[in-house]
TrEMBL record:
SUPFAM superfamilies: Carbohydrate phosphatase
Alphabetized InterPro entries for the sequence: His_9_proposed, Inositol_monoP_metal-BS, Inositol_monoP_superfamily, Inositol_monophosphatase-like
Protein name in the entry: Histidinol-phosphatase
Needed co-factor(s): Mg(2+)
Binding locations of Mg(2+) 1: E74, I92, D214
Positions annotated to bind Mg(2+) 2: D90, D93
Biological processes annotated in GO: L-histidine biosynthetic process
Positions in coiled-coil regions: none
Length: 268
């Protein structure tokens, strides 16, 4: 009688996250470029029935598979945040892109252990592109290992941010200072840009006013591809971070960017 060896815990969680992304991708495409009811949340950001329906489905799947795990999401009430393992989910990252028919929105899925993200998924439903990361393993793009560009000099780097509208005056000043040092700056992308960084097409990302469901899934993907992602002080991103995020293709590039911001080398 043939027996099978159980998957290690992180592998099992990663497999579940990929399966969950399959479900959410299919749901998102049933709403994409269709008439939607749009509401403004308390922070004036838009939300639709698609965001809420997809997150509700995600929560149902997670609770059924892992009833003791916590869930933190954008659209529904958080649950069991004192649990050892917490899923951090964003059903549609880039709702403004989604609403305007741009195929750059994505679904973000992370699983944290003791507050540290060890599984992350960036899935882009319209294009069928997906980046996955987990602790101790190389990140993958559609199943194939991927790497950042490894670029080390600001003067050669491509810098992205989703929108300058997200910055306050100080943040905008930092972004302009970085922009003067790099080869090129571009706007847009939301989570898609972080996938492009993991695959070597983008070198530096700089954002503020993000929430844990915006950045937690990015951490295993960027780090597993050889990049660095921290807050603007060079500290690891946590559930309590302020939402100021900088990601770079290499430790050297990251350190140069922090220096422009007036900080020293990233904390190890």
């Amino acid at each position: 009688m043939q027996t099978t060896t159980p998957l290690p815990e992180t592998d099992r969680l990663a497999d579940f996250a990929a399966s969950l992304a399959d479900t959410t991708d299919a749901m998102a495409m049933t709403y994409f470029r269709k008439p939607l009811d749009i509401e403004a949340k308390a922070d004036d950001s838009p939300v639709t029935q698609a965001d809420r329906a997809i997150e509700a489905e995600m929560r149902t799947h997670i609770s059924k598979a892992f009833p003791t795990h916590g869930i933190l999401g954008e659209e529904h009430e958080d649950a069991r945040l004192d649990a050892e393992r917490i899923w951090v989910i964003d059903p549609i990252d880039g709702t403004k892109s989604f609403l305007s028919g741009m195929p750059s929105f994505g679904t973000l899925i992370a699983c944290l252990s003791g507050g540290v993200p060890d599984v992350g998924v960036i899935s882009i439903p319209p294009t069928g592109e997906r980046w996955t990361g987990q602790s101790g393993a190389p990140s993958r793009f559609n199943g194939v290992p991927c790497r950042t560009s490894g670029r080390q000099n600001l003067g050669e780097a491509i810098l992205y941010t989703t929108s300058p509208d997200s910055f306050d005056a100080a943040g905008l000043a930092h972004f302009e200072a970085l922009s003067k040092k790099v080869a090129m700056r571009r706007f847009g992308g939301d989570c898609y840009a972080y996938g492009l960084l993991a695959s070597g097409h983008v070198d530096l990302l700089f954002e503020m006013n993000l929430h844990p469901y915006d950045y937690m899934a990015l951490v295993p993907v960027i780090e597993g591809a050889g990049g660095v992602i921290t807050d603007w002080d060079g500290q690891p991103l946590t559930l309590a971070s302020e939402g100021k995020v900088i990601a770079a293709a290499s430790a050297e590039l990251h350190a140069q960017a922090l220096a422009v911001l007036g900080h020293g080398k990233p904390q190890g």
